[in-house]
Amino acid sequence: MFARRLILVASSFAALPALGHHSFISEYDPEQIMTLEGTVTEVWYQNPHSRVYVEVRDENGVAELWETETYPRNILDRRGWKYDDLAVGDDVVVTGRKARDGSKRLQMLTIVRPSDGWEGVGFAADSID
């Protein structure tokens, strides 16, 4: 009886979808590098990938929200970027690889806060992570 239940439970886990790490090169185009200037609206300093959301004004003055994705928190920590280095309301300049699907997403290569020159860690330009 116990063995049957164990097999039933184990087989139910096998039916769940596997959530694997995605390759950035499959999601972002290394040939389409762009720069955004805008204001931080949200910072996710977490695993598996940290994100900084930036409100950017288009050529008509309409606000667009861009998601920029970078390393997980533990890697950023080791590279000197701390959870409170960026705050909502900070003006930033972000350079990154544009999403292949055309969405408003970037794989962050660089991020700078011009007001004081702070620079955050992004992916290296030759990275294929």
Which descriptors would you attach to this protein?
129 residues, alpha+beta, OB fold (Dihydrolipoamide Acetyltransferase, E2P), 5-stranded mixed β-barrel, 18% helix, 43% strand
List the helices and strands and how they pair.
Blueprint: H1 2-14, H2 24-27, E1 28-44, E2 50-57, E3 63-70, H3 73-78, E4 91-99, E5 105-113, E6 118-121
Parallel strand pairs: 3-5
Antiparallel strand pairs: 1-2, 1-4, 2-3, 4-5, 5-6
What do these coordinates show?
With 129 residues, the chain is an alpha+beta fold. 18% of the residues lie in helices and 43% in strands. The protein has three helices and six strands; from the N terminus they run ααβββαβββ. It has a five-stranded mixed β-barrel. A hairpin with a 5-residue loop joins strand 1 and strand 2 (50-57). The longest helix is centred in the N-terminal third of the chain and has 13 residues, at 2-14. The chain is globular.
